[in-house]
Amino acid sequence: xxxxDLGLAPSLAQAAQSRGLMAPTAVQQQAIPAVLGGRDxxxxxxxxxxxTAAYVLPLLQAWMLSDSAQRGAGHRDTQAxxxxxxxxxxxxxxxxxxxxxxxxxxxxxVAVLTGGVSINPQLMALxxxxxxxxxxxxxxxxxxxxxxxxxxxxxxxxxxxADRLMDLGFAEELNKVLALVPESAARQTLLLxxxxxxxxxxxxxxxLRADHAKVEIESTHRMDATIEQRVFLIxxxxxxxxxxELVEQYxxxxxxxFVASRYSAEHVANKLYxxxxxxxxxxxxxxxxxxxQVLNEFKNKQWxxxxxxxxxARGIHVDELPLVVNYDLPRSAIEYTHRIGRTGRAGxxxxxxxxxxxxxxxxxxxIAKRNALTDVALETLPQYPVTEKVPERQxxxxxxxxxxxxxxMSKKDKLRAAAGKEQGGDSDGDS
Length: 431
Hints:
This protein is an alpha/beta fold. It contains 16 helices and 14 strands. The chain folds into three domains: 4-216, P-loop containing nucleotide triphosphate hydrolases (Rossmann fold); 227-379, 3-Layer(aba) Sandwich (Rossmann fold); 396-431, no CATH class.
C-alpha cells in the first residue's frame, strides 16, 4: 500500500517518500483516510509507530487545497492548531512539516509557540498570521493575551500526546484553550497518544463527535519482539558500576538513561564524565537553547550517553538508538511504556534495561503487572550480589504506619483525636 492509495495527492505522497516515508505504517493506514474524510480521530498506537505523520500529511493536504496556499502572500487565517506537552515534540512536528513541505516546493507558514524562550520573536513571527500553530498550552495562552491571534478560524485541533495534555497537570490550561477554538461540532479534533488511561478515556467523549474514528494498534511493548526487555535486581549503591559496565559493553552505541530527578541527571552524568565516558545531562532546568543543543549533539553522536528525566520520554525521536536504561524506575506504568518506546522505533530492534533495587522491587512488580510483563524475569548478576535490606516502615506518632492497608487511622478516629487534643487530653491514652 502507498500513501496515494490512502487518498493523499500524488505530489504530497512523492514528497513524503523523498523524505524517507516509504510506505504507510499501520496507524497511518487507518488514520489518514479518516482524517482526510473529515472525521474526528482517537488514535492509540505505540511510540515510534508514525503517529505524527498520520496527522501532519492530511493537514498538509488540507492546506494545499486552501485559499491561503493558492493566494501565497497576505494575511493568513490559522487553519490547524497542534497542541503538544513539550518543546521538543513541538520542534519535531515543525521539522516534519518543514521537510515534507520543502520537497513539495511550498509549505505553510508555521508558528511554533513554546515556553523557555523569549515571547517577542514568537509574537513577531505571527505578524500576517500563520497557517498552522504548534504550541504548548501555557505559551499559547500567553501569546493570545499579547497578540491578535484568532483561534476561532481553526478547522482542525490536534492533541499530540493527548493523555499528557488531558491529565490534571494541563487540565486548566487545556480548558482555557478549548474556550478559544470553535465548538467540537464545528471543528475536526484529533487525539493521538501511545496510552489512554481510564481517567483520560472518560474525557474523550466530550472532545470528539459521536461518529469519530477509533484506531488502536495492538502492538504493545510486551508483545513487540523488536524491544527486548531485561530487568536486573541490584543494590542501589551498585547501579553506577553496572551502568559503566553497560557503557563499555555497548561502546560506540548511543544510550538513553532515565533517572528520577534533575539533580540525579546532573549527578550521574558527572560521575560518568569523570570516568572518561562521553555523557551529558538533559532536563527541564536547562534553557531551551541548551536543551536543543544537547539534543542535536546527541542525535549527531557527539555524546554516547544522555542522562535524562521523563522530559525525554515523549516526543523525542533519535535514529538508531539501540539501548534505553531505567537507572531509576518511572513513577507510573504508563511512563514505563513511553520511556522504553524511545528504542525499537519504526520496526528497528532495541533493548530496554531496568535497574530494580530491593527498595523498589514492589514498585517494579506493580509496573510489570499493569503492563502484563509476565515473561520478563527479574534477574540477578553474580558480580553484583544483592545485600541491601528493605527498611521497615516506622509508624508515625499518630499511629499511622505510613500506608499499610488496614492500619491507617480512620477518618472518624482522626476526628476523635483532634477533639481530644482540643480538650487537653491525649487521644491515644499514652503518656
